[in-house]
Write a structure and sequence with these properties.
Layout lengths: L5 H12 L3 H9 L2 H12 L2 H17 L10 H19 L2 E3 L18 E3 L5 H4 L11 H4 L1 H7 L4 H12 L4 H8 L3 H18 L13 H17 L2 H7 E8 L6 E3 L1 H11 L6 E10 L2 E10 L5 E12 L2 E8 L5 H4 L4 E2 L1
Parallel strand pairs: 1-2, 3-8
Antiparallel strand pairs: 3-4, 5-6, 6-7, 7-8, 7-9
Amino acid sequence: MAEPERDELDWLVTAAADGDPGAFSRLTEKYRRELHVHCYRMLGSFDEAEDLVQETLLRAWHGRRSFARRSTFRAWLYAIATNTCLDHLRRGRRRALPYQLQRPGETDAPEYPDVAWLQPYPDALLEEADPESLMIAKETVSLAFLAAIQLLTPRQRAVLLLREVSGWTGPEIAAALNCSVAAVDSALQRARASLQRNTPDDRHDWSAQPSTVQEDRLLGRYIAAHEAADVDALARLLADTARFTMPPRAVWFEGRDAVVAEFRRGWGRDRAGDWGLVPARANRQPAAAAYLRAWGDSMYRSFGFVVLGLSGVAISEITVFAYPELFPVSGFASTLR
């Protein structure tokens, strides 16, 4: 949606404040996708982010007369979205990936009632965000970054995202969160220290990431190995420190040998059927929509998304999100022949 001219924008703000629902809808629709991405970063959940955007817009409509033009309309919406997420996080469960909860290879994994699993974000939807809003860079939506910030307190998470991703100043953040600048500075310092501890350099060195062409080649080789259940071909693609997780299973595996052994078991004579993978992208990383055709079935049915993390020209991370319900919103069919 095109950016309204300044005079038109002023008119829309005035009309929306006076209760014109059409003007309000025109104003907010432009920011819906980037608000969704912001809420996704805060929550680690694609589904919950959608609910929170709806609540944000509802709060904005009811509080429209409070927009005093001391900030932009967009910043006003971000402040409402952030506080809506903070309210939700106070009563919700934090999101995580299995490697944050237990040691690798523990197949008798316990239940984690206070934790829900991180969800992926399709790149096709990231492209809907306004390119003139803050660019959605790989390092701000990568699974490694999202998993790390879920370990922060909700307030630290909000401060970090508003400062490091949205580029707000300390006083602007303090005003949005109704706290002091000193409290913002303290939360930011703690958040940065935690982020450094929980994202090892070898998993977020963006300067060393392969080009998109190299990513596509690696993804193609991974898909070929997966569809052929070729464990040896997979092994040649993996980094020494490769990690494999498959939420909602809590078990995970670390190191090439352990990952290969798990795939050998899963792709062995007792495997559930044949696989079909369609190239995709999620969280600015190479990915594939995975379909399984069970023995005796004539149809490949949606299983989940495989998201790859790369280190140089090797695969350092394989995360299989077994959530077929994400296929429709991601633009993928539920079945393949």
